[in-house]
Amino acid sequence: MLDNLRFTFRVMLRRPLRTLLTILQVGLGVWIVTIILSINFQANDRFDEWLTSYGEDLASIRISIIEEFEYGRSESIMSEFRLDDIELIKESSANVKSAFIFEQVYSADIIHGGIRYQLGGLGATTESFADAMNLQVLEGSFFTTTDVIDKNKVILISEVIKEQLFPDSSPIGQTLAVSTWSTDEFSDYEIIGVYKQVDPIMNMLLMESHVLIPLESHNPYHGSYYSEIYIKSLPGRVTDAVGDVRNLFAYRAQNDATVNPTYMSENITWMKESIRLVSLFLGGFAFIAIVISSIGILSIMLVSVVERTREIGIRRALGASKLSIIGQVINESIILSLIGAGLGILAAAVLEKYMIQDLIVSIFYMEILDGLGGLHPFAVLISLLLTVCVGALFGLYPAIRAAQMSPVDALKEGKI
Amino acid sequence: MLFTDKIRWAFRHSRRRFFESLLIVLTIGLGISVVVAILGLFSHVTQQQSAWMNDKHFRTVQLYSADSFRAHDGSPLKVVPMIEREKVDFTLDDLAELKNSLPEGLFVYIQENTMLRSKLLAGDESEVTISNISGSGGVEFGGSFSVTMQVSEEITEVTTEEIIEERPSSLTSFEDIFETHIAINQITSDFITFNELELESGTWFTDKDVDDGNKVIVLGSKLATQLFEDQDPIGKVVPLTSHTGVEYDFIVIGVVALIHDDLDESFSGMGFRSEDYSAYVPLTAVERSYFESDELTFHSISIGVSFEWDLGKAIEVIETEVNRYFGGAVVVSSSYASQKETEQMSKKIGLVIGLFASVGLVIATINILNLMLARVLTRTKSVGIMIALGGNSASIFSEFLLEAIILGLFGALLGIILSFGLAKILQLLVLISISIKLPQLLIGIGLGLVVSLLFGVYPAYQAAKINPVDALRIE
Questions:
Q1: Domain presence at residue A409
Q2: A149-174 pLDDT per residue, tens
Q3: How many domains does chain A have?
Q4: Which residues of B touch A36 (CB under 8 A)?
Q5: Which residues of B touch A28 (CB under 8 A)?
Q6: What is the pLDDT of residues A21-63, one digit of tens each?
Q7: Taking Cα atoms as reference points, which of A105, A81, A104, A86 lies closest to residue A96?
Q8: In a domain, A275, yes or no
Q9: Could you tell me the residue range of the domain that residue A310 belongs to?
Q10: What pTM did the predictor assign?
Q11: DSSP labels, A102-148
Q12: CA nearest to B302, candidates B287, B282, B318, B317
């Protein structure tokens, strides 16, 4: 075996330029495959993680009229829900774990230390939000049912805000002056907690909320009516829960309006689908690149076999079996491929920071994939397997051709 | 040796190693097909993008009062200067002043939009007015759009607070509103010039109409047909009811030529009605009933930048002028920065996709280099004999190069054929359209030539410098 390897290497070194070029060919193919597979696998992993930790049991309900047009659809949403409905939902459905209302205020200002800041976003919500969204409260605690009902002026700030406003001290117990909708009317809120900014995918729901306050503690904008209620079901019973809630509110849907749900998992599935399309698109290039480099191996091995006709003839004449000739050629092809693969994976590993993170992630408008990086182990494994297969498969034909040569003819040809 | 002879020679050599030549052609073909398909995709995207960028909408700059204007850049915390700023309300005088001081090619106008109910469309006297429409939503991939709407059935002069307190009692859908209301553009004259709105019949209103607030109306082409069918609409009366329930009679003075003749549906795109269903009235036509023209104020002024201007340069000029005139109390808002960003973004995307797409071609070139070198090696002896018999190295060089070029050209041809197939597959699989036209095909053939030429040179050079003595010595 060791002799076999040494022999192969010696053959390869006999034509160093050719060997180098062949390795380069395979390397490039493997490089592109590894990178594209990495992106695909990592994105999928991330989405699955999100799905299990947030999305699976989460849905929202709204009463609206949906109109379908030739080029799309429009939805007119009614504001039909009240704060009391949360209790109503919990009482009437056994499938619902919790329900909450979340209202995004896009423009809110705070004053701290005599400086006025524009907030990236403010969320007004109810007590079940923290639990339903797996919000991590780092310091202090989330507000309670009493805070919501009494419209207490308490506030939770995100880590990011804490870093900027209270870099050294604990913010708990301090006050912030908050105004919503950028009016000049400020009211004092007591800070009761700091939370970890959620995974960017939840931007779908949290937008860029950097502070959270009890729902009706600021001036209610839509009166006390809300357009959407979020429900978190008991594990795996989200469709049942949605069904219950739809029945519960069916009477409120007048005229052409209906009670319509949105499942959080639909959004994630949609994102997965778009990643799949991108991967498919790029994967197409990778596939063609691999095909081209396979053909490269095939042709170069053929040439090499023809060149070595005489040598092979001598070996056969000296008693080498057909099988050992096949083995020798395939060996060479696999080793060439493997070295190429190693090179390609190495290049992918070195360039991945630049390739995967900076370019791919930002260009496909998938900011949600920020922080991806590194090669995915599966991607590396598949690339390696693929190369070995390609090496063996495309070495096979030249190997058989070599083995089929009759030693007499081969020696008679006698050139080179 | 004649040139044709050389070609025949090169062909013979390729034929002798038919299978190997086939493989070379195949690799180059595959490589080129991907590049051609991607070039087709790029050209399609660039075309769409430039059409989009050249849309008048993206060449319009807005002036707002700085006190209420907030650019939302998504940063979690941004310091807001605590200077008390006076609110600027734009007047018709400001408009005239800016018009005078800004150079040619910048069209200064005020545009306000409203939906007014018309008896002609509603067909009855049922008394429903829209008290508040608050819109929110965005366009997503699937093309959905949502809007929140509250409708009250009372005809009262509702104040803003009352609307907020009011409980929405019923809901009217988009379609209902479009069936009973007309989308009205309240405009000044530069809007017409900038948007190059052509008339089908009649005339446009004049600056004087705008100043006097004359109740004249210019109808969109499809709206005119909807309202008056075959009759000549000019001179007819269109009754419009305002939010507060007051009715005005507008006289039709013109009909705009059809803008979207391809959109037969009354709804374009995402559920919005096409421009052909809207109407144009002088900016002050409704308000002048209550106010003198110098009492009227507007919350923004628009400036349309004509195509003779570079948008970036125009914005600089506008900013300087606006700062001089309003002294920092007014901000200039445009989509220029985000446009630039989009442009940059698509360049980056192009780079990455191009990079990925060309990997195949690079591999194919390495392959042709490799195989041509091998060919030189196998033919060392015959080359040696040729040189010994008096062949010069130039002819040897050209012989090998020609062989490479012929292979490259065949590869390019195959590539072009394959690229059409690839375009079809991509269209089916990833739902993107690709337009492969002559320029892409020429680039494809050019690439085949360049690749084979570039990577045929070295092997040909190797062949040309074979030493006949050494070559013949090889057994």
A1: yes
A2: 888 899 999 888 888 889 888 899 98
A3: 1
A4: 356
A5: 359, 362-363, 366
A6: 888 888 989 988 888 888 888 878 877 877 777 667 888 888 8
A7: A86
A8: yes
A9: 2-52+269-413
A10: 0.71
A11: EEEES-EEEEETTEEEEES-EEEE-TTHHHHTT--EEEE----HHHH
A12: B318
